[in-house]
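SAMPLE LOG
Freezer: B-3
Tube label: C17
Construct: single chain, 462 aa
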Amino acid sequence: MKFKKNILCIGAGYVGGPTMAVIAAKCPAYKVTVVDVNAERIQAWDSDELPIFEPGLLDVVKQARGRNLFFSTDIAAGIRAADIIFVSVNTPTKTFGQGAGMASDLQYWEKTAHEIVAHSGAAKIIVEKSTLPVRTAEAMERILQENKKGILFEVVSNPEFLAEGSAVKDLLEPDRVLIGSRQTPAGLAAARAIVDIFANWVAADRIITTNLWSAELSKLVANAFLAQRISSINSVSALCEKTGADVGEISFAVGSDRRIGSRFLNASIGFGGSCFKKDILNLVYISRSYGLDEVADYWQAVIRMNEYQQDRFVRMIIREMFHTVVGKRIALLGFAFKANTGDTRESPGIHVAAKLLEERAALVISDPQALDNARCDLAGFTASGAAVEYEPDPYRAAADAHAIAVITEWDVYKGLDFKKIFASMRKPAFIFDGRNILDHQKLFEIGFNVFPLGKPSLTHFK
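STRUCTURE (predicted):
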């Protein structure tokens, strides 16, 4: 079959894999190839055991795989054949040198740019899909345009706005698709080529075109705004616990204002994932680099509040369990940073588990999808002899436990038989609801001592 164009995606992770699967499913006239240096990951994409968990993803992959969706480790061949290259490589926060702890580590991104130059024989459109600091496209352009072959490359920014756990839905029914380019004839033509791809299933009024820098910065700002809402309501939850107010009632009252809206106003132990913290830190670093210290301080406070909320949750557990958790069995229900994913990057569960293990608690980690990642995240503690068990069955995890702490808002936890769980636990039995998803009054009536966030606690102690 002759395809209209060849699309390549370099990077088969949480963004590249699902994005290309949906593009292939919706654009049968395009050949879509996903390449990665990780052979094991590529093999997984070619199987029914995909390397990431996303509701509905396997069905989309099966729809196009072998027809116009292909997975490979041959990056050079993919570059040579491609007309359009999406770059979706990892850009973690730097852990060394200048900007350590804030700036993005762009070494994989730069290596990819040089690979594109080395293996290209004709003009190509390069699409930034990774989350990058503003004006990164300028650096990529310099690398690409310095080639000795006279090849013309045009760089376009197409940031992703996917939420893990709903990535397929977000791709099929996006709020917007953002495409940024140079405002030159060649740049605008490249942008139109990317618009043509998404126009196969996205309404025209949801495809937004901007200049390059606006597209790059919009991604960072969008995540910063979402994280800001979470930190804002979490700050209020601490005040509620001191005043007797109910953060759920406040969230409903405030969210009923159409100017504000109700989303991201649920008090919890805080945000996690690969994007929010990293993108805010990028924003902080960029602001400081331009001398905008007040701007940097403002956004830094969002992260500080997130860390405070996680520390506060741990302090609550220790305080309410008679100021010591030494040797006490505590079941953590959930470890993924959010429901409907196995991703544990920057999960509050890591911080909570680490702090409790430092207090010499005995932990049982339970999660429907994230136990393999949890083992990796806590490997340092288990290697040093810390008491950690991994149990997929929440009933077995809670058996003989002194306390349960809800870490992830999995729906399955709402429907558990808590009478059965209470009977299997040591007494007094505690529940610390870090997501405020359970029926606290019902748990209290069963016999639990219940400690939500931002709501009055319910205890049987005199």
